[in-house]
Amino acid sequence: MLWHKLPKSIYFRRGSLPIALDEVITDGHKRALIVTDRFLFNNGYADQITSVLKAAGCWRRKSSSKLKLTRR
Known about the structure:
This protein is an all-alpha fold and about 70 residues long. The chain is about 40% helix and about 0% strand.
């Protein structure tokens, strides 16, 4: 890889989810990277994001055999 393009916005504050998802959908993005931890994933917070992205056609999950949660 010769270059890396950073997103124009990174959202991380409480209440920013609707704003971030609206930007992803209205800007016509085709992919999204979701960074989370085990607690948020297991308690369904990641599902809130993926359900909106699925409805907009911006979400494809890789096969679960390729996904691994690592502990730091």
